[in-house]
Amino acid sequence: MTKRYMAIWFRHLLTDGLAIRRPELKEMPFVLAAPVKNRVVITAASLAAEKEGAFTGMAVADARAACSELVVIDEVPGKATQLLRLLGLGCIRYTPVVAVNLPDGLLLDISGCTHLWGGERDYLKTIVFKLRDAGFDARAAIADTPGAAWGIVRFAKSGPIVAPGKQAQAIALLKPAALRLEAPVLERLQKLGFSTIGSFIQMPSSVLRRRFGKELLLRIDQALGRVAEPLVSLTPPVPYAQRLPCLEPIRTATGIEIAIEKLLEVLCLRLQAEGKGIRKATLKCHRIDGRTVQASITTTRGSHSVSHLSKLFGQQISKIEPALGIELFVLEAPRVEDMEVRQEQLWALNPGLGDTALAELLDRVAGKVGANAIRRFLPAEHYWPEQSIKLAASLSEKPETNWPEGQLRPMRLLSPPAPIEVMALVPDNPPRIFTYKGKRHTIIKADGPERIGREWWRDKGEHRDYFVVEDTEGQRYWVFRSGHYDGGDARWYLHGYFA
């Protein structure tokens, strides 16, 4: 697939941004200014100010002489970066790769995106009109390289879309400044009479390098696509994502459901071909008011079942507020995993954790009670019981060790163990009475002790002597004494409840 890029130029970025926040400035000639050495210089001028003769780089005193009604506002450092970032985040709805191009532009990798809007021309118009409706004087151009698109949008008088492979012809008639060259290089080119790029682009590289340095050759190669120019995207692109623009804004739950199903059909087909399944997916709904609402699902194991994933998203549709309408749906799968190809069994009496139906049931339950409410534990090799388990990342994760057998353990374990007050006939005997949370328990049966030693290489605690005890109400508890009765320093703890 041929790479295609779009360059967006905001001719009056700072003044447009200020006029949006302060509508009273829209019809007034105003400029932004900052001190430079011993004078105050215009750093940005509105369109109305330019019509009155005030331009960027002009001293404020000279501009006031040309326009007596000129409004001068102090420049805020870093405002251009902030504005471009916000505008770039808004353009992510059109492509996942958007980069800030200081001081007044954006660069977009639009490869594989334009067909969703009916082609490059409609794609360009959609973005530009959207930005102009927001109040920005925006222009855009499309080419095979970021460098060519940058030069076309700023210096070409017509033809904002360069056909694939035609960037050399498109930039030949442009000024050398269209190559993003530094001022000293531009001055040398002007002195030698090179008024267009075409007048020197075919010259031998050795001659250009000797007279103008490496920068000129690099910019030529970047514009022509000989040297790659990767973009640093505002947000890391998700490898598995699918977009669906809408001809008319979607406002109903039925429309959202249909959009989800269409997106899943395409995305799951790709995942199935690559042997992968979704573990987490996010649906981003871009509304016509400029806001984005989203809903996410998680699965206990990788899945590329359209019906199953649709049901999970169906539980989230009520949380999506379409407002005036949704114009673009984006489905992203930031987390996927490899799926094993399982052979169907005719006799599967106890499929256990490998049963797809179990995983789908857990997903539906998690959609209602929350994914954090369902947990699976695996054994871990530690002495202390509260440290001998760990959370499993998925249903398919295998234990590194086996569960211990032949050891009586409670159904509910307290972590950390809770201190209790104990009365015992003999220090080494089980307790006869213990008090927990103000309630007194009289013990009628006891079994133990079971000694569990401490892990001296990671814990400074004493060894533990565990007892299984039963009180007069028939409740069974797991209690332990930490350390020996040496001078009465040993302490008792409640560690669990039996069923």
From TrEMBL:
Cited Pfam families: IMS (PF00817)
Entry's transmembrane regions: none
Keywords: DNA damage
Residues in UmuC domain copies: 19-150
Signal peptide location: none
Keyword Ion transport listed: no
Entries under InterPro entries matching the protein: DNA/RNA_pol_sf (IPR043502), Rev_trsase/Diguanyl_cyclase (IPR043128), SulA_CellDiv_inhibitor (IPR050356), UmuC (IPR001126)
Coiled-coil intervals: none
Family note: Belongs to the DNA polymerase type-Y family.
Protein name, UniProt field: DNA polymerase Y family protein
Taxonomic source organism: Mucilaginibacter jinjuensis
